[in-house]
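User: Here's a chain of 635 residues. Predict its fold as tokens.
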Amino acid sequence: MERKWTPAQKSAIDTRDCNVLVSAAAGSGKTAVLVERIISMITDPDKNIDIDRLVVVTFTKAAAAQMKDKIRKALDSMLDENPGDVNLLRQITLLNNAQITTIDSFCLWIIRNHFPEVNLDPGFRIMDEGEKKLIENDVLEDVLEEFYAEADEEFFNLVDAFGMGRDDSGLVSIIDKIYRFSRSNPWIDEWFDECMLVYDDETYDNPAIKELYDSIKNALSDYRDKYNRLVDICSEPAGPAAYTSALQSDLLGINEMINSQDFGELGRRIRIFSFEALSRKKDAGADPDIKEYVKGQRKLFKDYIGRLNDKIFLKDDDGIFEDMQGAGIQIRTLLKVAKVYAKRVSEVKREKGIIDFNDMEHLALSILVKKEDGKLVYTETADKLADRFEEILIDEYQDSNQLQEVILNAVSKTRLLGVNNNIYMVGDVKQSIYKFRLACPELFIEKYDTYGETGDNVRIELQKNFRSRENVLECANDVFSHIMNKNFSGIGYDESVRLNAGFPYPEYSDSNYGDEVNKSTDVILISSENEEEATTREIEADRLAKLIEGIVSSGVNVYDADENVYRPAEYRDIVILTRSVTGWADTFADALMDRGIPAYTDSSTGYFSVREIQVILSMLTIVDNPVQEISLRRQ
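Assistant: Prediction complete.
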């Protein structure tokens, strides 16, 4: 049966000859859209594009394997209908060599084909995390010993500032963080040099000052919105109308702070800001809970202003710049140590002929792009690859970083044709959770804000969710509409991005969902942190196993999207979610299997602790000695 696409999905599949950003909400079918786009491109007789002339970058190897499998199944299905189609046979043959992979694997493919261009030993190998950590620890220890031996006063001041009492573990930790952050940038040495220059600018144009200035003004803008809501609450019949005067006074001061022209003026306005006392006039019609809520929200703003005065604006402008001079000396020394460390680690790995995953990206970048006099110069290899690949498709684009952006742009046709026409990005900035791994969601946000409905750069919204029912989505929308805004998360949660039910689940009037089960099975959910936690887990697991057994045996109905019918629930329809797998998953799996309920979990225990392995070992023990009662009991 041919799948029905929404207009937005159809647009995401068919839009050509431009760069495309697809903002795909959770459950919106983005993977299916991506697969269909690829299929439509390689089966279009007018385009004549082979699948190995596409680059499809996914976030994980599992996602890449899944995408290849979906493409293969789609091609096989089409071949069943058209057995003599030569192009379909060709695409199936080329699929194994297609660049449907992670960014690391794509970079490794470039390196293996062009290793002489970066003077890399062809016998290089990829190091594991354990070996990598040992090398980094040894190198950092040697680097710090060298700085200690030089007896540099600035270095000793750095140790005093970032050390942890009797050792320098605090300093080691921050150097390691700087090292890892630097490697997410395309040009590491240049990044270190730019960071060292930050504290040389003793004006309000200093990048650090500007960042702090913007951050404070964004927070004040959020407080202004909150105060406007508080004023509205006070005007309601049960609202504390007597508080309105003080709130409006605060609001006037907030607006004055937001309108400050520079950091100095902002600091002066915050220092002189004062809070008008809340009226003590009795208001019989005011709800006590609403009064406490308004007072509590106002206190949060008071505390924020207090923190600004205590930690940032406790000195005048001259004092702030004087502190910056002292901090600048330590920061430059810190960056100097981190830069030496980064260079030394790179040299050691080069000598040993080993690379890590981040090295793959930097080596691939060196093969594709050079930087001369501050300008990017693309190599002949980059030109050849850009001419070869018809389109670059990037999944989970919100988790890309600056380094990956430069690499993928280097192999796009944009440089050769001078037209933005072959980069296709899919993602959802609301699902960006990997900034701690140095992802750069700002790349997505910048394109989201600048791409339009037509032209060389097109933005397409996939808002409909086909995974959940409307009541679940409305609950999620209610939460996110309150906690997400442009200042806080880089993107607002408005009508253009909210989740909308895309699948109309048919009503089932005869469903007995949960009624009889809940009467016969009394479930208790316990979360204990005391010494009896293991027993508590077993009790909870047993009660949950009884509930699941009751759901299946009593014929509770669930909707089967594949068959488009309601049917009795099966064990495979049920999933148990826990906050942590460790210590819980195995207990739950054992309780389920004790009742004959098939269960699967990603066990965190050792190989020989897994239930299935223990059963096999017990069986072998019984074969060896049938009177082993403990092993026999396990059967």
